[in-house]
Design a protein that fits this description.
The complex is a heterodimer of chains A (about 220) and B (about 260).
Chain A lengths: L2 H7 L14 H6 L6 H28 L4 H10 L4 H21 L3 H7 L7 H11 L4 H24 L3 H10 L1 H14 L13 H11 L9
Chain B lengths: L1 E11 L2 E8 L5 E6 L2 E5 L10 E8 L4 E6 L3 E3 L8 E9 L4 E5 L3 E3 L4 E10 L4 E10 L8 E10 L2 E10 L17 E7 L12 E5 L5 E7 L2 H8 L31
The chains are: A mainly alpha (about 220), B mainly beta (about 260).
């Protein structure tokens, strides 16, 4: 186990992720998620769709950070929702801001020059490479964050017991490993063939959520 | 069953000519309008084990609308084999394709994949509707995956994989379909007025141009209330207005079999 991996995966790493609920706030307000069981179904659906896509793109960017522009373009094509693209690029930008100080390097510098900011998974892969992580480790961090981000938002949004929510994350451990493994394998091919698994309600509710005047999370 | 259908539309001074219009059961194309083709016999397919291919080519400046006469039902065969439909489409410069088939219904225990690849040249126009119905009445769907790849000049515009069924983890949960039985998408090139989204539908402007509407509903009536308004031909500037296409004789003299 490498310390760099733990630092990057740590929820306390100042990458701004805490401002986003990964679509959970919209799901809670629309009464699709209201308790531990519906949260579990939300997390599984998210993990196997956008979680898989994000993990594969993180692995691909880590394996070949020099191709970050082309990889980022492919992720754009897989993100129909303008609200989700904006949220993803903002998170990519805040991750980059921290990484530019923590793990400076040529690819991290180049990532900062992308005017609108890289998509979060692509930025994560580039930063993970600079931190000395492998593509498989990048995918694991990304898949874990796909679950842990909305799960911790659920504690705030629904007042769920944090012990039980972490019990839920732990119970999804095998699924997270499986998705990270599949993502790492998928990332060995060309960027155009990276996974494109859709989560229809995440797209639709991101647009719904972005139109609200009052909300707790940015996305 | 292995079957291939091919339609090639060309622009001529007298309108759209179908240079190629051929198929084999269960993919049988019939000309039904000046620039319209219906596929007949869709209801019997795809059945487990089927390997179906559709090739659609729209030449420079040509216009084509593709429809089916009935919904397709993805059914299992008794050996549990997978079925596959590959749709390859190219639309050349100045060409336009309206792809408006009836829905695909995922019957229980089916194992079906549709892979659609569309290549657009420069200013080619496309309206593309896909509708997936999860199960016949009161039935849970089998495994269906719809892979859609839309490119312009070789660059990705839109890529999606929609998967339902027992092997698609969490597909019907609150991040996927949320209990909806029908999933409809409409892709359109160019600008589309992005109507305000609802909790179950959104019209979204893509990063590389065009829009995609994603609509979830209990039934087709609900999704078509939104998508029907989006499948009209794009308005063309500087070209003749598009007239509604009525039915004409099937064996038009413009049809030349290849």
């Amino acid at each position: 186990m490498k310390a760099q991996l733990l630092i990057l995966a740590d929820g306390r790493f100042p990458s701004g992720g805490h401002a986003h609920s990964g679509g959970l706030e919209a799901a809670v307000v629309r009464k699709r998620v209201s308790d531990l069981d519906s949260l579990r179904r939300f997390l599984i659906g998210r993990l196997y769709t956008s979680g898989l896509v994000g993990a594969a793109f993180a692995a691909a960017a880590c394996a070949d950070p020099g191709s970050m522009d082309g990889i980022d373009e492919e992720l754009d094509a897989r993100t129909p929702s303008p609200a989700l693209r904006l949220a993803s690029r903002r998170q990519g930008r805040s991750l980059w801001r921290a990484a530019a100080v923590v793990w400076p390097g040529p690819h991290v510098t180049k990532a900062g020059a992308v005017r609108k900011g890289l998509h979060q998974p692509v930025a994560l892969g580039v930063v993970a490479e600079a931190a000395g992580c492998t593509p498989g480790e990048s995918a694991a961090i990304s898949a874990y964050h796909a679950v842990s981000g909305p799960a911790s938002a659920a504690v705030r949004l629904l007042g769920l017991d944090p012990y039980q929510v972490h019990g839920l994350i732990a119970a999804l451990g095998d699924d997270i490993d499986r998705v990270a493994q599949a993502a790492t394998e998928a990332a060995r091919g060309p960027a155009a063939d990276l996974p494109a698994a859709s989560s229809p309600l995440l797209d639709v509710s991101a647009e719904d959520h972005a139109a609200w005047e009052v909300r707790l999370f940015a996305s | 069953m292995k079957a291939t259908a091919r339609v090639v539309a060309e622009h001529t001074t007298s309108g759209t000519a179908l240079r190629v219009l051929k198929g084999e059961a269960p993919l049988l194309p019939r000309r039904t309008g000046p620039s319209e083709v219906h596929f007949v016999g869709g209801a019997a397919a795809p059945l487990g084990g089927d390997d179906l291919t559709m090739e659609i080519e729209v030449g420079p400046g040509a216009e084509l609308t593709i429809r089916t006469v009935a919904a397709s039902i993805a059914l299992p065969n008794r050996f549990g084999d997978a079925s596959r439909l590959s749709v390859s489409v190219s639309v050349a410069e100045g060409g336009r394709l309206l792809w408006l088939p009836e829905p695909l219904i995922a019957a229980a225990r089916c194992r079906h994949t549709t892979v659609s690849t569309v290549d657009l040249d420069r200013d080619a126009e496309l309206v593309w509707r896909e509708e997936l119905v999860c199960g016949r009445h009161g039935e849970d769907p089998g495994d269906v995956r719809l892979t859609t790849v839309l490119r312009r000049d070789g660059r990705a515009l839109y890529r999606s994989d929609v998967a339902v069924g027992p092997h698609a983890r969490g597909w019907d949960g609150p991040a996927g379909f949320g209990g909806a039985r029908v999933h409809a998408t409409v892709f359109r090139t160019g600008e589309t007025a992005t109507t305000s989204s609802t909790p179950t539908s959104a019209v979204m402007a893509l990063a590389a141009g065009g829009t995609v509407a994603t609509v979830l509903g209990r039934d087709l009536i609900e999704t078509r209330r939104i998508t029907d308004a989006l499948v009209t031909p794009p308005q063309r500037t500087g070209k003749a207005a598009v007239t509604p296409q009525g039915s004409t004789a099937i064996d038009s003299p413009l049809v030349r079999r290849a």
